[in-house]
Amino acid sequence: MKPHKSILLVPALLAMQCAFAQNSRLTLSNNYPSASEKLQMTYTPAGSPLAEKKDISARVYFLDGKDYPVSEVVLKPSNDTLTGEFEIPAMAKAFFVKVYSGADIDNNGDKGYMYAIYRDKKPVQGANELEAYALISNLASNFGKIKADNDRAFELFKNEYETYPNDEKKYEASYYWLMSKKASPNTKALMEAKVKSLKKSDKEKDLSLASYILNDLDKKAAADSLKKVIKAKFPTGEMVKNDAIYAMAMEKELGKRDSLYKDFASKYPDEKDANVDYVRTQLAIGYLKAGDNKAFENYVAQVKSKTNLAGSYNNIAYDWAVKGEKLELAEKLSKQSLDIISDKLKKAEASPFYSKSDVEKQSRGMYNTYEDSYAYILYRQKKYNEALKYQKEVYDYDKDNDPTTNEHYVLILNALGKYAESKTVIEKALKAGRGTSVLNDELKKAYVGLNKNDKGFDVYFAALSKISNQKKHDELAKQMINKPAASFTLKDFSGNAVSLADLKGKTVVVDFWATWCGPCKASFPGMQLAVNKYKSDPNVKFLFIDTWENGDNYADAAKKFIADNKYTFTVLFDEKGTDGRQAKVVSQFGVEAIPTKFIIDKNGNIRFSMRGYSGSDQAVLDEVSSMVDMVNEEIAATKEAAPKQSMK
């Protein structure tokens, strides 16, 4: 890593800010934007990833260290450019602009369009610090697809602290963490001097920073010793409190978690930390499952975020419905989840990084999901007419009509004898390439219901299946890519090294997952079906890479989960990267969310990438096997087309 010369740092950064404004596709009416100013922005799509797009929009994410407001910018065409305007909030210190069309984003070659707020052509206090933090956290990446940049972040942090040496430093621990990565005698000496200075302080914040720096210097024993001093000196301080929150969150046994929470609540009454609210929610749900209604109601009353409670209600109620258990209670809980989200919709307001319209859209999507669960619970209770009222709303709202939506809708329609409507819904799904085994079964019921027999069904179904399969094939063909997969060697449960390079010549399915990831685990029964399908094919290999886990005991948890569910998976453990997170390989693959799966061909090239859970076991199997088969078909076609050597 190149050393930076502090004497040139400030002017270099100022030049960098101006360069982004003047020489990129996006320009602002003022190269030194100030708080409360109304700015005009001009965007030139030519040469960008959005060059051929017609529906280009923009959003501005303001960094203020607290509220993080968002401005939605209407872009109007003007010759070959698009123009719009937005006003900078009074408390903003920096911002970045996201220019996008649907899922496509112009991220300015990974650097993004990020700007400081100025006063007298000088970045305001906190501007560079917040920019730096956005670059090394997930903020800029998640919302603007801006690539993490430790070098640039370090320069920004250093400029901030040299320009404003006496002001509050909110993310100073991150600055010293970045400094530790430089691994030079000079930086080590600076960090050790900082620790020596901080240890003279009588403030918990300073002593805690010293302990973090010691950890960054790999002086764990010294860091642990200092932490003991901090906890003894500040028995109700932040470090003690955070340790207590972590202990509550990680405790799985209900009674022990309850005791930990009661002890915590006696010391920190009415604590509003989101993690504490998570504990309250989990205690409430734990007692609900245990059948202790009094304790359940007690903790429900303490939960601050009813939205999280709604999610838990929905999950439990739907799970009971699938199993055919506790349907009356499932109906009650499911209805409560709907009422909570309905109330949130009525009172929607902006939240950090989300505009009011974002919150409304998210809430409507949540309501749609919970409404689907409620309709299915009513169906399981044979309350078909009431179920239809809710499920039709779900179907009409969900334009893509995912597999579960379609399945629940036709189950209800067929139960009511509305065979013509059911048949129309299923035909639409099949023609769109969204067929499932449930839809196939319900189609036959509808066909027989309309025709009083199954005569001619096989011919009719074969014709529909042909259309469906071709549609799936055509859609998948559009998603095919061809780029080299990052090489890796990771260890399996037995400690054996498994290398992607050793699997060259085979089609490899790589599935990134974690034990805490609900959609990952929901997809596993379908993935087991896929593993079973290809278990006799020596040219297809599945690798499940456990990643992004928390704590140090994740290996045991992963092994237990796989064993308990009797999955016959080859599981590998991702390694820790330079940032200390278990994320080395997942980062090399550019994964932004899990589950994410990759289909890698025999030459080591990624041909397909798919994110999320497809909605049903059959859908997962169909999706994975279709992609594997397409890759294998391409390989076979290439072999067939290759010129044959003549025999001499």
Shape: globular
Number of strands: 19
- Can you say what the CATH homologous superfamily of the largest domain is? Tetratricopeptide repeat domain
CATH class of the largest domain: Mainly Alpha
Annotated CATH architecture of the largest domain: Alpha Horseshoe
Q: Any idea how many domains?
A: 4
Number of DSSP helical runs: 24
The residue ranges in which pLDDT falls below 50 over 5 or more consecutive positions are: 1-23
At CATH level 3, the topology of the largest domain is: Serine Threonine Protein Phosphatase 5, Tetratricopeptide repeat
Helix % is: 40-55%
Largest sheet descriptor = 8 strands, mixed
Provide a descriptive summary of the structure in words:
By secondary structure, this protein is α+β, with helices and mostly antiparallel strands. It has 4 domains: about 5-170, Immunoglobulins (Immunoglobulin-like, Sandwich); about 185-235, no CATH class; about 245-475, Tetratricopeptide repeat domain (Serine Threonine Protein Phosphatase 5, Tetratricopeptide repeat); about 485-640, Glutaredoxin, CATH 3.40.30. It is about 55% helix and about 15% strand. It is built from 24 helices and 19 strands. Strands 12-19-18-15-16-17-13-14 form an 8-stranded mixed sheet, covered by helices on one side. Strands 3, 4, 7, 8 and 9 form a 5-stranded antiparallel sheet that branches. Helix 22 (about 555-565) links the parallel strand 16 and strand 17 (about 570-575). Helix 15 runs parallel beside helix 17 and helix 17 (about 405-415) packs antiparallel against helix 18 (about 420-430). The protein is globular, with a radius of gyration of 28 Å.
